[in-house]
TrEMBL record:
Gene name, Swiss-Prot/TrEMBL: ftsH
Enzymatic class: hydrolase
PANTHER family: ATP-DEPENDENT ZINC METALLOPROTEASE YME1L1 (PTHR23076:SF97), METALLOPROTEASE M41 FTSH (PTHR23076)
Protein name per its UniProtKB record: ATP-dependent zinc metalloprotease FtsH
Assigned GO CC terms: plasma membrane
């Protein structure tokens, strides 16, 4: 059986007992029955009011009294038109559809009254005998019965399809899962990059479906389920589509919300129907996206208590326990809220594997960029690794968007190839917004913004544990910044030292320090800098154990790690007050260091600020050239650069410094030791640590603030000054 035939047979909405054709026939019969009953009663009531039956004697009496104007003799009856009526040469249905409400009469025909015509003529009554107009009757039948039946059928079909989302009136409790085959998804594992570990786990599952004997020979069993967990945009659904494209078996795909409908009990019924269809067509794969919609914990702490959802979850738990994995039925689930899922759903035997689909690292981002740029024409200047370095913390959807934006920029400028400049401009557009070309700053504001941004860059250049400056600009952007400093790391580091975090705070406060020392005042331009510095300082104290006062105590926990990263204090109110004092103290110390650095290099700052005001945007190389000339510093050699990198993390104990020196570092593409379980995320691996990968943070990357959604539009970078809170009259 080919895949297309298999799909038709597997469609849970197309079975013999619930085919669309059968449903339409039933709907048509119902519509016809309702229409016939309604029209019969309606026409009968109308006929009683406009066309009354009288006896033959009453008819003759009306003739004698001169009340009859004309009669029409038909085969079995006589139609009588009173004197005050206007006889029309039409069928009876004419009066109904034209609104002629004149009362007429009819009576039976008396065969023995042969002198009726003569008697009528003597009484002055017009007599006629007409052949019924059959065409009019046919038209009347179509209008009276056929049209209402079709209209009612269409209305019923629309209503039932809406209630069951296209499943037909008899499939409200049926599963509406879509069945995919390879040529329909168009996605394979070759289209997935940057998630090698997750892809490897799913490749094993697909291989098990293709070659079950290889695994059963040693006693291995197919995992009943695999749960894909990770932040939004990392490619969980894309991985599932790749499984569909590689498996060559029926692939049932639906969202968790598809189980819940208007009627109570529909969710449980659809779960039963879905697993029944899957069992009939094994081996197959069931993919439930956003499974937290039905798998939410039954504990009231996580919003439990919904009876319909609990019934659906109970049925899902029962079905996952009830089927035999040896039949080849695999369940894939995807969620970015694993902490709210019911514990019974997560236990081994239901979801045997938890596959982490995390934000890609440097190598992963470069691979993702290659996948999304394979169909985009690019020139020889393009360096995807540089863009990968700049986009620390971005996910696959962000990178795909940047590639597309770069292509649009190239087309807009009339070029046929995308350049590196286009890629970096697209990166800045996604992060900070487009340049506001019509925004004109006053001379004083331009000067203040220039000193503010140079303050960040200068402090960064003086300190030893900061990332190099890539760009300084005072061109306003649509996301609120009047200028910013872009820092690009030379390499990606998974860990941050205490010194690096402290210097990051100092760099963030460098702009405010420059304002105070140069202009003897401060502005609202440092609002975002203060927010970022406060977030880093609070993390150091509450999460990383870098406070002498609190030591190694964890004072906060992170909830919804893969979404907004809500922070919850794990201490008393008194301790929370002490934390605020400690954060305030740390920020004050860093600010004093920033002012000290700026105060010692005011002449250098003047030269760089003058150049920046003239150019509006300068590169990191131009900045460092002016800085070294002003400070009389030589250009560092490659050996000195490598030595500086080596001093980032080094053992102070001589014996410890020798450990591991002769062991080569294993590259990413080399064979790594096999691990039984996927990599578990630790605080050092989590989003709060990874957000320090790039000084230029993104809305996706920045999870340090208490409410990321409210701040994401205002955070183009941590080191650069974001003037998003500057009021129109701040300089007055």
């Amino acid at each position: 059986m080919d895949n297309n035939q298999n799909q038709r047979n597997n469609n849970p909405l197309g079975g013999d007992n619930n085919s669309p054709r059968r449903q339409n026939i039933i709907l048509l019969l119902v519509a016809a029955l309702v229409t016939m009953i309604c029209m019969t009663y309606f026409l009968k009531a109308f006929s009683d009011d406009t066309n009354r039956e009288i006896t033959y004697s009453e008819f003759l009496q009306m003739v004698d009294d001169g009340k009859v104007d004309s009669i029409v003799i038909e085969s079995d009856r006589i139609d009588i038109y009173p004197v005050d009526s206007k006889k029309e040469n039409q069928s009876p249905s004419y009066y109904y559809f034209t609104g002629n409400n004149t009362v007429t009469y009819y009576t039976g025909k008396a065969e023995e009254d042969t002198d009726l015509t003569k008697r009528m003529l003597e009484a002055g009554v017009d007599v006629s005998s007409e052949v019924p107009d059959n065409s009019g009757l046919i038209l009347a039948f179509i209008i009276q019965y056929v049209a209402p039946i079709l209209l009612l059928w269409l209305i019923l079909s629309f209503v039932f399809r809406k209630m069951s989302k296209g499943g037909g009136p008899l499939s409200v409790g049926k599963s509406n899962a879509k069945v995919y085959v390879q040529k329909e998804t168009g996605v394979t594992f070759k289209d997935v990059a940057g998630e090698d570990e997750a892809k490897e786990s799913l490749v094993e599952v697909v291989d098990f479906l293709h070659n079950p004997a290889k695994y059963s020979k040693i006693g291995a069993k197919l995992p009943k389920g695999a749960l894909l967990v990770g932040p939004p945009g990392t490619g969980k659904t894309l991985l599932a589509k790749a499984v569909a494209g590689e498996a060559h078996v029926p692939f049932y795909s639906l969202a968790g919300s598809d189980f819940i409908e208007l009627y109570v009990g529909v969710g449980a019924s659809r779960v039963r129907d879905l697993f029944s269809e899957a069992s009939k067509n094994a081996p197959c794969i069931i993919f439930i996206d956003e499974i937290d919609a039905i798998g939410r914990s039954r504990d009231n702490k996580y919003g439990g208590g919904n009876e319909e959802r609990e019934q659906t979850l109970n049925q899902l738990l029962s079905e996952m326990d009830g089927f035999d994995s040896s039949k080849g039925v695999l369940i894939l689930g995807a969620t970015n809220r694993p902490e709210i899922l019911d514990k019974a759903l997560l236990r081994p035997g239901r979801f045997d594997r938890r596959i982490i689909v995390d934000k890609p690292d440097l190598k992963g981002r470069e691979e993702i960029l290659k996948v999304h740029s394979k169909d985009v024409k690019m020139d020889e200047t393009v360096d995807l690794k540089e863009l990968a370095l700049a986009t620390g913390g971005c996910v696959g959807s962000d990178l795909a968007n940047m590639i597309n934006e770069a292509a649009i920029i190239a087309v807009k400028e009339g070029r046929e190839f995308v350049s590196q400049k286009d890629l970096m401009e697209a990166f800045e557009q996604v992060i900070a917004g487009k340049e506001k070309k019509d925004s004109i700053l006053s001379k004083e504001e331009r000067k203040l913004v220039s000193y503010h941004e140079v303050g960040h860059a200068l402090v960064s250049a003086v300190l030893s544990n900061t990332e190099p400056v890539q760009k300084i600009t005072i061109v306003p952007r649509t996301k609120g910044s009047l200028g910013y400093v872009l820092h690009l790391p030379e390499d990606e580091n998974q860990l941050r030292t205490k010194d690096e975090l402290l210097e990051r705070i100092i760099v963030s406060l460098g702009g405010r320090a420059a304002e105070e020392l140069v202009f003897n005042t401060v502005t609202t331009g440092a609002a975002q800098d203060i927010d970022d510095a406060t977030a880093v300082a609070r993390n150091m104290i509450t999460l990383y154990g870098m406070s002498d006062r609190f030591g190694l105590m964890q004072l906060e926990s992170i909830q919804n790690r893969y979404l907004d990263g809500n922070r919850v204090l794990q201490c008393s109110d008194e301790t929370a007050t002490l934390i605020d004092e400690e954060v305030k103290k740390l920020l004050a110390e860093c600010y004093e260091k920033a002012k000290k650095i700026v105060g010692e290099h005011l002449d250098t700052m003047d030269k760089i600020a003058q150049f920046l005001i003239e150019k509006e945007t300068i590169t990191g190389a131009e900045f460092m050239k002016i800085y070294r000339e002003a400070e009389n510093l030589p250009e560092p050699t490659e050996e000195e650069k490598e030595a500086a990198k080596a001093k980032r993390l080094y053992a102070t104990r001589a014996e410890s410094a020798k450990v591991g020196e002769n062991v080569p570092v294993k590259k990413k593409n080399e064979e790594a030791p096999k691990e039984e379980d996927p990599k578990e995320e630790t605080p050092a691996d989590g989003p709060l640590f990874k957000e320090t990968e790039s000084i230029f943070t993104t809305p996706v990357q920045n999870e340090e603030t208490k409410d990321n959604d409210e701040n994401q539009d205002d955070q183009p970078n941590v080191g650069g000054g974001t003037f998003s809170h500057v009021p129109n009259d701040f300089d007055k």
